[in-house]
Write the structure tokens for this entry.
Amino acid sequence: MQRLDIEQQIRSFVTDSFLFGQPIDLQSTDSLLAKGVIDSTGVLELVSFLESTYAIKIKDEDIIPENLDSIHDISEFVFRKLGCLV
Amino acid sequence: MCGIAGLLKMDGSPANRDLAQRMISTLRHRGPDDCGVHIDGPVGLSHARLSIIDLAGGAQPMSSVDGRLCITFNGEIFNFIELREELLARGHRFSTKSDTEVILNAYREFGEDCVHHFNGQWAFAIWDAHDRRLFLARDRMGIRPLYYTRRGESFFFASEVKALFACPEIPREIDLQGLDQIFTFWVTLPPKTAFRGVSQLPPGCCMTVVKGDFRVRQYWSLSYDEDDRLRSVPEDRLAGELLSLLEDATRIRLRADVPVGAYLSGGIDSTVTAALAKNIVHERLRTFSITFEDTEFDEQPYQREASAFLGTQHSNVSCSCSDIARIFPEVIRHTEQPIIRTAPAPMYLLSKLVRDNGYKVVLTGEGADEILGGYDIFKEAKIRAFWARHPDSQWRPLLLRRLYPYMENIQRQPAAYLRHFFRVTPEDLTNPFFSHLPRWDLTAKLKLLLSEDARKTLRGYDSLAELQAQLPPSFAQWTYFGRAEHLEEKYLMPGYILSSQGDRMAMAHSVEGRYPFLDYRVVQFAAKLPAHLKMKALDQKHLLKVAVRGKIPDSILRRPKQPYRAPDGKCFLGAAVVDYAEEMLSRESLRNNGLFDPRAVGIMVDKFTSNRATGVKDNMALIGVLSTQLLVHQFIHSSAEDLTPCSDSILSNKSAVS
């Protein structure tokens, strides 16, 4: 799977799940927390999406903003989990 | 408790009797016992009566003995007995034993200042035939509703918007700024309503219409300046004072010529009102409650315990997801505004239970959370304020987990994220809306669902700026706790708790709610209390708990706060999709109404129908869109005839008496 594909899938998920599909100005490196995109239940939705879509297991200690706070960070994190080279 | 309506031709032309009649006919659910219309030249007053006090003599509209004044009145003046004595001593004459006539004579004696003498819940209009002046007033806390609009030379008012819309000349249109406000604060900011051109008289305000013009004046407001002298008063003494005030507030709220029952939710507040009432009436109190099939929301064990402790004769009505779905359109016909939670719906079933058992009046515990530090939003603000003083602290934000023990998603939240969601800096503490911004920011996401046209119209509109402009000058001097209380008491309580969940759901079945905690003497006493007495550490309603120790079961005093909630999205888009919801959320219906973006709504709906995890925001979004669509369907697209009450026989009777 291409890195760009993953980033695109994650962008679609974030936009549809948290922004009702509305295109807002959201750069790949923007903080989802700082921009108020992700709400208190959103991170759990995100984790279950990543686990089911990419067949990866995410440990509790992985659920930190450093891994999941931007579309770019999430893609990198998934890539690492998939064992791909970044 | 009743419905009122009326009109004034400001050019002096005669008022139309048929129109006054048509307006009141939409409000017969508020007053099924009698109906009256009074026409006097340019003015028409009408009234639908629910007889509670002076059953024989209290018919309305009522004229003063000298014929100069005529009143149409919805509500109760609980201190009418004492006021009547005072007015008799001042030489006034009475021909009835009603509180309505007390208002008339109080107006004759004190003029517009009469409202300062009333302890109660009211909306009324008095026509002074001599001065050609119409005077309208609404109670301090906004318990009873009053709407008005002007069209050309005609001024119209009524208890509910549907009576205004019975007049063909009044245009019907959703107010987009009102919708923006609801999708931020959950309520409109008075005088705004969900309908363009329709205003509400704000709580604590009165209004005069004279010589073609009208003037609104605020006669009462609550100050949250803490009384520093109270800091040195022993806690037990203040608790005693609070209890005395509550006892008297309850005593005068038991005045009625029909029996008075009480709601019993299983929480502290309604148990307190029921306990106080029971001690005053010295007979077996009748109590009523809702139970939920879904154990997440059900409080039945506590209700049983409270009922057994107080020895009440108790009935309950069970509420399921399918009940909520079944009655929801009717609920919106009564709320007359979009809502983002389904919580009013079970209250609709509860008032039906009360009415089916032959009761017209119930005491409820509403208001205690607002005035005595009960809501979680106060606790959230307290924890965030505590944290903001040491933003680097690792353990302070962990207190956030104690906030919402009943919300699984919050409890499962990783600590790092919890810290971010409630993130706070010392500067945040100076924000006037510090306590409410997390809630409002989340709710405001619903505006992403608005159509491009709606968003274009709203471009440049800032509901927070509008609220900021309404804040009282002393707001900045209050503590963050007092500010949070003000925002709840001034906006959410009258606009949602007392309206959508209160007056509207009770009056849908001709039931009057009475609120001892909202006696203005109790409210004023509470507002002066230092915040630490209302919330000691994180103990909510601390002083109230001290005051009622021994009067209600200890288990209820000690139980964790469980806010009243009801199932939301799954009622409509769960295992089965409710027909009308599918229609209201269809692309065609959304496109026709023009308020929402069909694609965005489709993505939201898909989240429910494809069984994916949904959060608080998704549920608010679904209920917000569905209720708005139902509102448009029933109020904008309907004819005047459609707004008259429909039979309540659609409801099945699932009550059980224990």
